[in-house]
Amino acid sequence: MVFYPELLKFNDGSDVGCTKCWSRRREEILEILQREEYGYVPKLPETVRGEILSGQDPEDVRCCSGHAELLRLRISFDAEKGPFSFPMHLFRPEGKEKAPLILLLNFRPDVYDKYYPAEEIIDHGFALGVIYYEDVTKDNGDMADGLAGLYERRNDGTDWGKLAMWGFAARCAMSYLETLPFIDRENVALAGHSRLGKAALLASAMDGRFKFTISNDSGCCGAAYERGKHPGGETVADITRVFPFWFCGNMKKYAGRPEEMPFDQHFLLSLIAPGYLLVGSASGDLWADPVSEEDSCRAVTPVWKLYGKEGYLGGDGPCETNGSFDAGTIAYHKRDGIHFLGRQDWLRYMDFMEKHLDRP
Ligand code: GCU
Questions:
Q1: Atom number in ligand 1 closest to CA 219
Q2: Could you say which of 97, 207, 285, 324 would form a disulfide bridge with 333 (CB–CB 3.0 to 4.6 Å)?
Q3: Residues 112-161 pLDDT 10s
Q4: 100, 127 Cβ separation under 8 angstroms
Q5: Residues with CB under 6 A from ligand 1
């Protein structure tokens, strides 16, 4: 029998039975996750500036069969030790006064990348913002690189790791994007695949501005429970051996001993309540452990219920390959095939979001 730390009990063992109590419990959970897993995340900068670098000549920026403009942006802010800026791209549907936005933390710098079907996203009426994650800080242990070098480190096991930094940058971008008159700030999704799905979950857990959170194949330290891993599933020992710099130093303590963690990944997902949570897996992606990803969705449902929302309506599961359960506030699907953020995933995510967009 696997024991999972309880969501709806305070650290002192007393019950959490209403949303007011939950907001206090939320703080406890956020503290545990930062101290033990991802590291402490600095406060967002008060001012974030943005510049549109292209767009003067409409012919330069028209794309997607002429249905969109592709804008190059630069996002800037003052970090603790000095100024920081990074580039990003924004596909803006033409002729829409206000478009819902999907903000994607992406793996590759390529514009028109294999991880996002830009034209299809535009045809569904969404704007698409894309941040190439290594423009924020490199995916390695260099804690002097980019954003990483601009915050003091305490070296006490609780300094933030790279997942937290990529997520933080997405939140900074949001501070600018939400000021753009053609962006519908009430209908923004934060999305990421795999390690960037982990980063997206964390960022959204700390920031109430994302109505939708998309975790695609995020697996270990993302949507998947760490305890009770299924055969082939990545463990805390695996991930902290190869990618220790994604986390705070304390996380290493739990390599090979997940049962000692004062949290599990349902803690992370729970912080997204009462927002819409979209979790996608691939049947051939055993490393990310689809069954554990789905089980976490089930486990957090009581938190959504506190808010009078359905949470996950997936029954006892597991979801079949190419099946989905998306009648509730939490949507889950399992596509056939390998670890990837593909067109089928995008279609499922957009279909779900379209049902829940606030339209004027
Ligand atoms: C590795 C890592 C995973 C991660 C994946 C990715 O496989 O072990 O945890 O999700 O890379 O980001 O593609």
A1: 10
A2: 324
A3: 999 999 999 999 999 999 999 999 999 999 999 999 999 999 999 999 99
A4: yes
A5: 194-195, 219-220, 234, 239, 287
**pLDDT number for residue 54:** 79
Q: Is the pTM of this model over 0.70?
A: yes
pLDDT at 58: 65
- CA angle 167-74-153, nearest 5°? 45
Instruction: Please write the tens of the pLDDT for every residue from 223-234.
Output: 999 999 999 999
**Residue 1's CB: how many other CB atoms inside 10 A?**
3
- Structural domains of the chain, ranges and CATH numbers in brackets: 24-356 (3.40.50.1820)
Check: CB of residue 18 under 8 Å from CB of residue 303. no
Over the stretch 189-216, which tens digit does the pLDDT of each residue have?
999 999 999 999 999 999 999 999 999 9
Name the residue among 146, 177, 136 with its Cα closest to residue 51: 177
CA–centroid distance, 286 to ligand 1, in Å, is 11
For residue 216, give the nearest of 197, 188, 189 by alpha carbon: 197
Which of 234, 279, 289 should be mutated for ligand 1, with most atoms under 8 A from CB? Answer: 234
Q: Which amino acid is at 140?
A: N
Q: CA 222: distance to chain centroid? A: 8
3-state SS class at 97: coil
